[in-house]
TrEMBL record:
Organism (species): Nocardioides gansuensis
Highest taxon in the source lineage: Bacteria
Cited function: NDH-1 shuttles electrons from NADH, via FMN and iron-sulfur (Fe-S) centers, to quinones in the respiratory chain. The immediate electron acceptor for the enzyme in this species is believed to be menaquinone. Couples the redox reaction to proton translocation (for every two electrons transferred, four hydrogen ions are translocated across the cytoplasmic membrane), and thus conserves the redox energy in a proton gradient.
Protein's UniProt keywords contain Iron-sulfur: yes
Entries under InterPro entries matching the protein: NuoE-like, NuoE_dom, NuoE_N, Thioredoxin-like_sf
UniProt keyword list: 2Fe-2S, Iron, Iron-sulfur, Metal-binding, NAD, Translocase
Annotated residues for binding of [2Fe-2S] cluster: C94, C99, C135, C139
Protein's recorded name: NADH-quinone oxidoreductase subunit E
NCBIfam families, sorted: nuoE_fam, PRK07539.1-1
Membership in a protein family: Belongs to the complex I 24 kDa subunit family.
Classification lineage: Bacteria, Bacillati, Actinomycetota, Actinomycetes, Propionibacteriales
Cofactor(s) this protein requires: [2Fe-2S] cluster
Pfam families on file: 2Fe-2S_thioredx (PF01257)
Signal peptide feature range: none
């Protein structure tokens, strides 16, 4: 097979492309200990293959000098790594305690019914994979839904249905925090450490997440210097 030009991103049903092999090696080379690159390498495999494939596991093992069983152990430990093909959009509904009582359970039930799928299943058109997920550290915007790991804050069953319908219709949809939603494979490539230059679209944290920071600034509270070993003494206000 002749080498692919660096800007090509192709799929090859019979195995990983030369570009993917090259990029897997690039990731491994970023770290003083190459095996530290395993997680981003697995994300790249997902981006290229649509899931963790046996070929992807073998490639990571070969590059890192690990056994396939060791790579497999990591790939099966983390729920972000998928053995079944994922749809164009991974929709994760937080059903952890706070989101659940604020409406997450109702959103998940409505989407299951609307899409005709169960947990961790993909709609017939291959567009949406639905999964219930644990706390996304966005409880201040409960109930929260993630699309390819972008936040959709303060959702309702109706807004969630609207989001998946617009995605299935090929419309441009934005996270409630700003960024345009890309496909799951594109998001996986970013998680592998190949930025898509959209990191600055929208704020990183919404107003509700910054309330504590505002209070701290108002009262002149600061964090201890990095490396300071002394415990922070409570003030009259914090006692
Ligand atoms: S419980 Fe849903 S984001 Fe924390």
């Amino acid at each position: 097979m002749s080498p692919l030009p660096p800007d090509r991103f192709t799929e090859d049903e019979t195995g990983l492309t030369e570009q993917t092999w090259r990029e897997l090696r690039q990731i491994a080379a970023r770290y003083p200990q190459a095996r530290s690159g395993l997680l981003p390498m697995l994300h790249l495999v997902q981006s290229a293959e649509g899931r963790i494939t046996p070929e992807g596991i073998e490639a990571c093992a070969e590059i890192l000098g690990l056994s396939a069983a060791e790579v497999n152990g990591v790939a099966t430990f983390y729920t972000m790594f998928k053995r079944k093909p994922v749809g164009d959009y991974h929709v994760g509904v937080c059903t952890n305690t706070l989101c659940a009582v604020m409406g997450g359970d109702a959103i998940f039930a409505r989407l299951k019914e609307h899409l005709g799928v169960g947990n961790d299943e993909t709609s017939e058109d291959g567009k949406i994979t639905l999964e219930h997920i644990e706390c996304n550290a966005a409880c201040d915007y409960a109930p929260v839904m993630m699309v390819n790991w972008e936040f959709m804050d303060n959702q309702t069953p109706e807004s969630a249905v609207q989001v998946v319908d617009e995605l299935r219709a090929g419309k441009e949809v934005h996270s409630t925090r700003g960024p345009r939603l890309c496909t799951w494979r594109e998001a996986e490539r970013v998680l592998a450490g190949f930025p898509d230059d959209r990191a600055d679209e929208g704020p990183a944290a919404g107003p509700a997440s910054l309330v504590g920071l505002g209070i701290a600034r108002e009262r002149g509270w600061t964090a201890p210097e990095a490396g300071a070993s002394k415990a922070v003494q409570p003030t009259e206000e914090t006692k």
